[in-house]
Amino acid sequence: MTRVKAITSRLKSGFLPPAITFVVFFGIWQIGVQLADIPPYLLPKPTDILRAATDNYSLLLSALWTTAVESLLGFALSIVIGVLGAILLATSKTIEKGVYPYAIILQTIPIVAIAPIIVIWIGAGTNAVIAITFLIGFFPMLSNTLIGLNSVDRNLTNLFHLYSANRWQTMWQLRIPAALPYVVAGLRISCTLSVIGAIVGEYIAGIGGGKGGLGFSITNAALRLQIPYLFACGLAASLLGIVVFLGVNALSRRLLSSWHESELSTEH
């Protein structure tokens, strides 16, 4: 019974406020557009968007699936290479000072300037979109993980030295666990960027037709002035980003809820 009350309370505090905001926002949107008599090609009503989504649901679902796969693959790649790269840099200050500035430089180059080179190297299509998604999501993972690995309590580091732990024992048993909150912070940033990266990649290097993602669908809808469907694609992209973010949040709670203050405070 106590557990049921706790779940109900959690739903009320976590689900109800955004649900009310959602209803109020779309209600004002619907009524406001109707009262102002704004034509659909300027600002469609939510019901127009819903109708466009249901009329084109097979195309929309296919585009959403394509973008979701590209986002998750690029995100996974940015996690693996970002975390491994940070561990490599954290093993030596010399390596960190020699390599990290170039990672910053890579981050500062606009993706639209790199994308044509990627297309030339590996061709247009899914692989190029995944590569662009990886580049956008890579740096937050690298920098956050590196900060976490370098932020270990000095007293604990000295304790490991006292017990003659070698470099890799210290890394595996102390520095990586201590860096987990920072890794999770990087995941939260990178996961939403991965959705944006996939859509940007589809603009620049994606393919069209039935294999196109949301980026292609948005471009196509804009060219054909299918504004309600364009809004539907945009909202679908937003929904995808929210789902990925909630997944990362669930992972964060699983990893940190038993010991880290940031997740303990959300449990009580």
UniProtKB/TrEMBL annotation:
<keyword id="KW-0812">Transmembrane</keyword>
<keyword id="KW-0813">Transport</keyword>
<dbReference type="GO" id="GO:0005524">
    <property type="term" value="F:ATP binding"/>
</dbReference>
<feature type="transmembrane region" description="Helical">
    <location>
        <begin position="128"/>
        <end position="149"/>
    </location>
</feature>
<keyword id="KW-1133">Transmembrane helix</keyword>
<feature type="transmembrane region" description="Helical">
    <location>
        <begin position="227"/>
        <end position="248"/>
    </location>
</feature>
<comment type="similarity">
    <text>Belongs to the binding-protein-dependent transport system permease family.</text>
</comment>
<dbReference type="GO" id="GO:0055085">
    <property type="term" value="P:transmembrane transport"/>
</dbReference>
<keyword id="KW-0067">ATP-binding</keyword>
<feature type="transmembrane region" description="Helical">
    <location>
        <begin position="102"/>
        <end position="122"/>
    </location>
</feature>
<feature type="domain" description="ABC transmembrane type-1">
    <location>
        <begin position="64"/>
        <end position="252"/>
    </location>
</feature>
<feature type="transmembrane region" description="Helical">
    <location>
        <begin position="179"/>
        <end position="207"/>
    </location>
</feature>
<keyword id="KW-0472">Membrane</keyword>
<keyword id="KW-1003">Cell membrane</keyword>
<dbReference type="InterPro" id="IPR000515">
    <property type="entry name" value="MetI-like"/>
</dbReference>
<protein>
    <submittedName>
        <fullName>ABC transporter ATP-binding protein</fullName>
    </submittedName>
</protein>
<dbReference type="Pfam" id="PF00528">
    <property type="entry name" value="BPD_transp_1"/>
</dbReference>
<keyword id="KW-0547">Nucleotide-binding</keyword>
<feature type="transmembrane region" description="Helical">
    <location>
        <begin position="20"/>
        <end position="43"/>
    </location>
</feature>
<feature type="transmembrane region" description="Helical">
    <location>
        <begin position="63"/>
        <end position="90"/>
    </location>
</feature>
<dbReference type="GO" id="GO:0005886">
    <property type="term" value="C:plasma membrane"/>
</dbReference>
<dbReference type="InterPro" id="IPR035906">
    <property type="entry name" value="MetI-like_sf"/>
</dbReference>
